[in-house]
Amino acid sequence: MLVSAKEMLTKAKSGKYAVGQFNINNLEWTKAILQTAQELNSPVILGVSEGAGKYMCGYTTVVGMVKGMIDELGITVPVALHLDHGSYEHAKKCIEAGFSSVMFDGSHYPIEENIEKTKELVQICNDLGLSLEAEVGAIGGEEDGVIGGGEVADPKECKMIADLGVTMLAAGIGNIHGKYPENWAGLSFDTLAAIQDLTGEMPLVLHGGTGIPADMIKKAISLGVSKINVNTECQLAFTAAVRGYIEEGKDLQGKGFDPRKVLAPGVEAIKATVKEKMELFGSVGKA
Ligand SMILES: [Zn+2]
């Protein structure tokens, strides 16, 4: 069964750990993440970007696959299916399709418009028992072709959005999607602390979890981050493992060309990455 992310994140915030959001791209990805969460008895959030949703033939296909898999694999840990960086229209589409959680990214709107649209979605999500993530201060790097500048959010604007009744809040604190550049300035912990002071119990979300050093992740969790998004790192691990299989010529041996065999090392690499992250975030055994 899919659940809203509210309870798992409330527990994470009070328990001083974070739940990982791992983005999915296909069946292999979804299976690897769900099985790892179950093995480690960890709650998990499956992230779906608009682009990945389109790639997987639409949101109803995604809901059908995830629900079927939870059932067939006997997954009993809490699983939230979450739209990542959704537009207002796509948030509504995902709600209709049966997602248990959505993110409305209104960070590119003026704050008044972000508030207006977030307010409407708060109402809809509350009525249906779904969780809603909002964003203040665009997060740097590229996500589905959208390039942000790596802003640092205004804590007062964070407080304004948090007060609307969203479930969790993503705030730019110098984090970036994708690989971090050599000259990256690091996370702004002063900003994070100021946001946490103003927003209190609100679980905070750290996007762009790939490549942030472990000590910074731990410090961010201690300052109120309860959800960390991981996407690029699974992609890098998957592709490197599949490349290794082919470079070693294994696809040319016997039935090595079988796609299930070709992708298997990639699946194992995703599992290892997810395990490493869940251990770092402290969500193991917290289901
Ligand atoms: Zn993001």
List the domain count as a whole number: 1
Portion of residues within helices = 40-55%
Strand tally:
10
Distance between the termini: 14 Å
The CATH topology, please? TIM Barrel
Strand order of the largest sheet: 1-2-3-4-5-8-9-10
Structural class: alpha/beta
Number of helices: 11
Hetero groups in this structure are: zinc ion
Instruction: Describe the global form.
Output: globular
Outline the biggest β-sheet.
Answer: 8 strands, parallel, barrel
Q: What is the C-level CATH assignment?
A: Alpha Beta
Please name the fourth-level CATH homologous superfamily: Aldolase class I
The succession of helices and strands, N to C, reads: HEHEHHEHEHEEEHEHEHEHH
**How much strand?**
15-25%
- CATH architectural category: Alpha-Beta Barrel
Work out the radius of gyration: 18 Å
The low-confidence runs, each spanning 5 or more residues with pLDDT under 50, are none
Give the averaged pLDDT, no decimals.
Answer: 94
